Every structure is written in structure tokens, then in C-alpha cells.
Structure of Pectinesterase inhibitor domain-containing protein:
Amino acid sequence: MNNPNIPHTRALLIFLSLFLSLATAIQTPLLVQTCKRTSDAALCLSSLSSNPRTPSARDVETLARIELDTISTKTNATVDIIIQLLKNTTDAYMLRAYGSCVDTFGGIVVNRIPQGIAALNSKNYAEAKNQVGLVQSDVRLCFEHFSEKQPFTSGSQLVSRLAVAIAVPTPLLIQTCQRTDDNALCLSSLSSDPRTSSARNVETLALIEISTITAKTNATLDMIDQLFKNVTNADLSRAYGTCIDRFRGIMKNTIPRGIALMISANYFEAKDEIRHIQSDVGICLEQFRETQPFESGAQLMIRLTGVAIGIINLLH
């Protein structure tokens, strides 16, 4: 499938992986040895080999800079597609969603990439990696506006697995996620957050996972609010009203209480509080006889909450 967003997101994987080589000497040929140490050697070789600057590259930093330029090019191509979609839609929600993505992807080109290059130039590799991690977060936030596949995305499956491939998990992350019931989702959701690489304990990972749930809850609630505006059926209106009340309760009460209990090291009660998220989402979904556009986001909330509970279980 010729999807500009696939090489764009996969280029992120390569860029982050290149940093594994920055601290150690690379034997010649530089390109081959470097790409072997990335998560996608074939794409690394093809994307860098096609750039005329690669043959003269003498260090991994230069290759990373070239790959950043590739990300910028693919991001611009993705923005062009989204702008065309924006011009051809009249749906209020889609207008808002596409507009948000245009702003987000534009920010990648104007802010993230230049800041990443500046960090590279100053040899602040940790910050460069952080900036590209933020690019990945931005892309994920755009995808969360949509319940169905769009022309610029390879699907929700890629969204949920991106972080596993773009970052090399720390030993703490690997060991923690292996002890949860959903190792893959644990790795993907935590690896996509730039704070994870500096996490020094399980409690921090649990708090990061809760913040991921918060972001997903916000995105899903926003979608429910938009859908509710177009509902005319009385029963469906009541169902959406129930969901809005439940999701707002999660944002205003459940999550803040859970975080407060975590900070006070009351892990047992924190786990019980966070578990209410699954109950509230379940009550929302029970209101409908047919699948709703926001259901995939709601189901992901249930799974993310399960991961958070699994991590908190390790603390007591």
C-alpha cells in the first residue's frame, strides 16, 4: 500500500534506534553497521541509501540528521493529504479533527524537527531523542480523533504498536511489562511517552500509564460530545448522556483521586480507584445495542486501565 504515513512513522523508528550507536564506535561500512542495530534494518538501508548525502557521512550523528530530514519530508507529504481531506469534508467533527491534525503535523515540521536538529548539533542526544519521542506522541494524538481508518494512516493497529518499535525499552520497562497481563500494550503505551526512558521505579511507570489513560479518556470524551450533538433519537440521547456523565466523572474524580493515592503511596486504594474506570466505561457501552464510533477508544481505555492495575499490583 502506498501510504505516505507508513514511511513517515517508520522513519521515526529508525531515528530513535540510531541513538543506540552514538555512544560507541561504529566499524565500517558505517551505514550497514548502523542499520543492523536499528529496529528495521531494511528500511534504514533503503531510506538512507536513497539520500545522496549518505555516502559522505562519516558518523552516526550525520545519519541521524539525514533521517530527521526524511521524517520532515514525509510529514509535509502527510500534511498535504490531510489538507485535501479537510477541503473535501463538510462534517463538523471531521473538520475539527482534520484541522487539529494539520496543526499538530505543522508543529512537527516547524518545532519538533528543528529542535531535534538543534539538539543534535549541540550533541545533546537525549534531548534530540526526546523531541522525536514527542513527534511520535503528536502523531498518536492525531490518530486518536478517528475511530475509522483514514487515507493517511495505516490503521489503529499501527498506532497501538508504534511505541514498541520506536524506542528501545529500558530494563525496568521490560521487567515491569512482562509481569502485567498485556505485555504488548504495556510496552507500546509506555514507550511512546518520552518520560519513560528516565523512569527509575515502578511507581513512576504507573503514573505515566495513568496519564496515558487520561489522554485517551479526553480524546474519547471529545468524540462522544461531538456525536451527541447530532443525536435526535431520545433513547440514543439518554445513552450518550450517560456516557458523558461517566467519562466526565472519570476525568474530574476517579483519575485525580487515583493519582493522589499513588503519590501518598496508598497503592491498594489507588488500584481500586483506577479500577472504577473500567466499570464506568463498561456501563457506558452497555447503553448501546449497536457498535458506536467511539467504542474502539473506550475499549482501549479498558485495556490501558488493566495495564495500570497490573503495574500498581507490583507495588504492594
Summary: Residues 21-28, 154-168 have pLDDT under 50 and may be disordered. The domain at 176-313 is CATH 1.20.140.40 (Butyryl-CoA Dehydrogenase, subunit A; domain 3). Residues 210 and 308 are 7 Å apart (CA to CA). The radius of gyration is 21 Å.
